[in-house]
Design a protein that fits this description.
Layout: E1 7-10, H1 14-26, E2 31-34, H2 37-45, E3 52-55, H3 64-73, E4 82-86, E5 97-100, H4 104-115
Parallel strand pairs: 1-2, 1-3, 3-4, 4-5
Length: 122
């Protein structure tokens, strides 16, 4: 699947982040990893782009909900689709999906769909 922008993977668990990055790369995606929401936000603020953001919710420094709030407030990145990947029961109505960490196949399938959504351009 041709793609110019990477998947931004924001996950504080080192082992899980590395495993997901390898899985996504094996599926043909370029991946940019961030250890928490603050690192992910700094990437976007520096002009980084993404076709989709995979977002954990419970993280140090800047958690997933605050990251998403900041993302929606910034016009340049508000339209990037977000897939929440979390260990807890959670809801985020403006996300493409909320997927439990016990279901990585659903995560991969959802990323495939979300990455094909054209970004809104203004």
């Amino acid at each position: 699947m041709p793609q110019t922008e990477p998947v931004l993977l924001i996950e504080d668990n080192d082992g899980l982040r590395e495993a997901l990055a390898r899985l996504l790369e094996a599926r043909g995606y370029r991946v940019v990893c961030a250890r928490d929401g603050q690192e992910g936000w700094e990437y976007l603020e520096r002009g980084g782009c993404a076709s989709v953001i995979v977002l954990d919710l419970l993280m140090p420094r800047l958690d997933g909900r605050l990251f998403r709030k900041k993302q929606l407030e910034r016009k340049e990145c508000a339209s990037i689709p977000v897939v929440v990947f979390t260990a807890t029961e959670a809801q985020m109505p403006d996300a493409v999906a909320v997927i439990r960490k016990t279901d990585p196949q659903s995560l991969l399938d959802t990323i495939d769909r979300a990455a094909s959504i054209p970004a809104l351009s203004d």
